[in-house]
Every structure is written in C-alpha cells, then in structure tokens.
Design goal:
The protein is of the alpha/beta class. The chain is globular. The protein is built from 18 helices and 19 strands. Helix 1 (4-21) crosses helix 7 and helix 17 (471-478) crosses helix 18 (498-506).
C-alpha cells in the first residue's frame, strides 16, 4: 500500500509555513521569544532573570533587545545545577512543569556528560515538528516519491546513562532513544527495527538484529548518523551476500542524515547505492534542539526553523555581542546561541554556522568552537578539515570510516605538523597524492594555514597515519566522551594530543 499521497497532503501545511517565513524570519523569531518569556516568567529562572520586566519593554523587537541586555550568555556548566534539580523532580525550574526526559550528550568540563532537558513542549513543538518539516520539504521537492510505500530504517541509541540514580518516572539517555520511545504509535508501522531492538544498549547484539530485520523489509528511506548507518548497511550487504543496496532494497530513495559532516562519506554512499535514484537530505538535529533542514532544492545550506520553539542568536567570532536573525550577513561564520522551550536560555551550543542565504535564512554547520587546531597560528576549523578530507578521498578513490586530527609539535630539527589518524574503509592507492591533495585543499580554504605552510617554514606537510580497524569504536566505548552507538562522535580536531594518543593506544 502506497500512502505517500496521503502523507503529502497531511504535511503540505508545513511547506506553506516555511514559505511564509521567507523574508519575515526576524519577526517570527521575536514573536516566538516574547511568547516563550511569557510562559516561563514564573519559573525559577524566569523570576531570577527578570522575565516579567523584560516583557514590560513593550513591542516584540523591544523585548528581544531587553532580553539580550538583561540575560547573559551561558554555557552548559552554568545550567548544570538547575538541570540536576530537574532530574531530581523539581517543578518549574527552567521551564514550567516537571521535565521527565533528558538527553545525555557528550561531556564538557572534566569529561562529565551533559543532560539536556527534553520537555513535553520540546518534543511536540521542536523535535517531532522539525522532523515533519524535513519530510514535508523532501516530498514537496520530489513529487514522484514513494517514500511511504515501504518502511524507514531509523537508527537510535539507548537509555543507558551515567547518572548514578534516576528518579522513578524520569528517563535519561540518548535523544534518539527518547524520540523512538515517545513516537506516535502509528509511526511504528512505517519504521524498522521494532522499538525493543532499536533501544537495545549493546551494539554487538543490536547491530546483527537491526541488519536482519532491515534486510527483510522493503526499505524506502534511511535516517541516522552517516558513520553508524554505514556500519549497518555494510552488515546488511554482508549478510545478504550483495554488493549494492539496490539488490536488497530496490525502492530505497532517500537518506536523511545529520550529526556529522556527510562530505567524507558521500563517495562511499554513492558506491553502496549504485543504480538507485538516491537523494540525500541533511538535517541539523542536536540534543539541544531541531534547528534546520534541507529544502532539497539544491541551494546551499539548510533552512533555519524559525517558528519551532527555538530563538536563535548569532555571535560573531571574536565578539561578545550576539545579534538576531535580521542582522546576520551571508558568507559569515557565527557561534550559534539558542533559547528553547526545553529551558535553555541564551545557551552557547558550541556550534559555529555559516550563513548561506538570507531569504530564506539558510545555514551550514561550520564546526565547533572547541573543535579546532590553532597550535601554530593556523586556526584550522572543522569545516576546512571535512572539505579537505572529502576532496582527498575523491581524488584518490579512498574512503574513511573515521578520523581525527591533532598537532605534532616541533622537536629538534623537525617542524610542527598535523597528524591525521584515519581508519580506512578503502585506503588510497597513492598515499603521497592523498597527502598532497589534502594539503593543497586546506591551503586553498584557509589563508592562515596557507601562510604557516608557506615554504614549509612553520608547518610541515600533514602526516596521515592509519589506525587499526575498530580503534575509534574502542575509544568511544571506553572514553568519558560516551559509548558506542547513539549520537556519540569522535571530535574531528583537537588542540592537544589527548584524544589522538588514546586512539592510537586503542589500536595497539
């Protein structure tokens, strides 16, 4: 039974909403902020931050200006005491009512995990709504889609967590686990694996079960982090003795992906999906919120969701003053600041985004504020690394499972350099050419890196080092950064060698 036409009609309102935002993003955002402040003014945070006084500023633009002046920017550690009170069952701390769901995310200070509140409003108005925008825009751009003639393979994490005690009725774990657990029951008709399998904690048990159940279904769409989805797809091909996904799922048409850059994986997915009319639709879905989706028009970037429970501010790099959606400039990179119906207020996400277009407001994820290398004054950003890796793989026929980059400092007569630790899927036939393309691409993308590489005076050629299969997975499973599976990711760039040395040791 093909229910795509019915789904298209149900979701058509979402495409009209996105069209209505165009050119009016700032107005939508300011109205949303005023509404959020009204609803949260009697919470502990709202009272201590003077939300009632801020609302007294009058018009929505005046309220937004007063909010920016009265409430300081905050990082997660500033919210941790309040969040822990919420986990213990306190009411009305950061958002009205009791919050019973928390997304465990990668660690911050001292490697401690973050616990992001997921309120009922956050689920309804942001996470599930964001997913509906993604599907709606895909269907709108692809009138021939038969997405709902089959099922979707959706990967998720588990409710395993490192909180010593969790109050009865409170759930802490991966965001994806909460989304699967709380999804509208009818949606389970259109997805695999079943809920029990999807929420298993042990990936050594979970992976073969997912592959078995998925291989037996008519999969038309897949959703997940590219690196983890790749692992599942390769297991499906291995189990079925196939070389292309077309042999297993002839009706597969779209991959909704997010979490990490798709660029280093694009060529490998093209190989796996050879013969399929495949589409790739990016989403920007973090533990803190569902922020942006591709409109599948071929335009660069993703459309920012400006009326979905998140108020955005943009902090120019090196500045202390954030600006609103109406003040950003195309081509510039900003740190993303969010206030959400999950109870985060002027929260520094740690993500940097590049503004691609203003109407509609489209962004791309440029990297992390703390995922960079500036050991030699080169200011290498994650976006530079992802694009250079993708180009070097394309030029040499290579593909990667995972990688990370760390500095090697000058010693004696040796110049400093960047060491790229890579777990290959397909190693380059010409390693020297891979390094040359990698270096040349970085120099073309980053003028600071190019200056430091000039004549090999300050910075030597990159060093590319292969690590043993499974080294990254073993590090993820044992490090303070998280566990295998779910939303856990290896940092692409580090300004020291702690992670790199630990991964090398994991591969020994």
């Amino acid at each position: 039974m093909n229910l795509t036409g019915i789904a298209r009609k149900i979701l058509s309102g979402r495409t009209r909403e996105v069209a209505a935002w165009r050119g009016r993003e700032e107005a939508y955002q300011q109205r949303l902020l005023a509404d959020m402040l009204r609803r949260a003014q009697d919470t502990e945070f709202g009272r201590s931050s003077g939300f009632a006084d801020i609302l007294g500023a009058g018009s929505a633009p005046a309220v937004a200006a007063a909010y920016a002046e009265a409430v300081p920017l905050r990082e997660y550690e500033d919210f941790r005491p309040a969040v822990m009170k919420m986990i213990e069952g306190a009411r009305g701390v950061l958002w009205p009512g009791v919050c019973r769901n928390f997304a465990q995310s990668s660690g911050t200070t001292g490697g401690r995990s973050k616990y992001i509140p997921i309120t009922e409003e956050g689920l309804r108005a942001n996470h599930y709504r964001g997913a509906s925008y993604s599907v709606a825009l895909y269907l709108h751009a692809n009138p021939g889609s038969r997405m709902f003639a089959g099922k979707g393979l959706i990967l998720g994490g588990s409710f395993a967590n490192n909180v010593v005690e969790v109050r009865k009725g409170t759930v802490v774990g991966d965001l994806s686990a909460t989304l699967i657990q709380r999804i509208y029951p009818m949606a389970n008709w259109f997805r695999v694996p079943d809920k029990h399998t999807a929420l298993l904690e042990d990936w050594e048990v979970k992976l073969p079960l997912i592959a078995e159940k998925a291989a037996a279904a008519d999969i038309t769409n897949i959703s997940g982090v590219p690196s983890w989805m790749m692992r599942v797809l390769l297991r499906v091909l291995e189990d079925r003795g196939a070389t292309s996904l077309k042999e297993v799922w002839p009706n597969l048409e779209v991959f909704f992906h997010g979490g990490i850059s798709f660029a280093p994986y694009r060529e490998e997915y093209r190989r796996l999906c050879d013969g399929l009319d495949m589409h790739y639709s990016e989403v920007y879905n973090a533990s803190e919120g569902y922020f942006a989706v591709s409109d599948n028009t071929g335009a660069p970037g993703m459309v920012l969701l400006v009326d979905s429970g998140v108020y955005y501010e943009f902090l120019p790099l090196g500045s202390e003053t954030a600006i609103g959606a109406g003040e950003v400039e195309p081509g510039k990179v900003y740190e993303l600041i969010v206030s959400t119906v999950n109870g985060l207020w002027r929260y520094r996400t740690g993500d940097t985004v590049r503004v691609e277009t203003l109407s509609p407001l489209r962004i791309t994820v440029a990297g992390r504020t703390k995922s960079f290398i500036n050991a030699f004054g080169e200011e290498l950003m994650e976006d530079n690394a992802e694009r250079a890796m993708a180009e070097a793989c394309r030029a040499t026929g290579a593909s990667v499972h995972n990688y990370t980059v760390a500095p090697v400092y000058a010693h004696g007569t040796e110049r400093g350099r960047h060491q790229w630790l890579v777990e290959w899927k397909v190693a380059p036939a010409d390693p020297e050419r891979f390094v040359a393309v990698l270096d040349a691409t970085l120099r073309s993308l980053n003028s600071d890196y190019d200056a430091k590489r000039s004549h090999d005076i300050f910075l030597d050629l990159p060093e590319v080092t292969a690590v043993a299969p499974g080294a990254f997975d073993r590090w993820l499973a044992t490090s303070g950064s998280g566990k295998l599976g779910g939303q856990r990711k290896v940092p692409r760039l580090s300004n020291d060698r702690k992670i790199a040395d630990a991964i090398v040791k994991s591969g020994e």
